[in-house]
Amino acid sequence: MADPYSLLGVSRSADEKTIKSAYRKLAKELHPDRNKDNPKAAERFAEVTRAYDLLSDKDKRAQYDRGEIDGEGNPAHPFGFGQGGGDPRGHAYAGDFEFGSGAADFGDIFEGLFGAGRRTGGFGGFNRGAPPPQRGANMSYRLAVSFIDAATLAPQRITLADGKTIDLKLPAGVETGTQMKLAGKGQLGPAGPSDAIVTIEIGKHPFFERDGDNVLLELPISLNEAVKGARIKVPTVDGPVMLTVAPGAHSGQTLRLKGRGFTRKNGGRGDQMVTLMIDVPARDPALDSFVESWTDSRPLRAKLGV
Question: Is the distance from CB of 8 to CB of 22 less than 8 angstroms?
Answer without folding.
Answer: yes
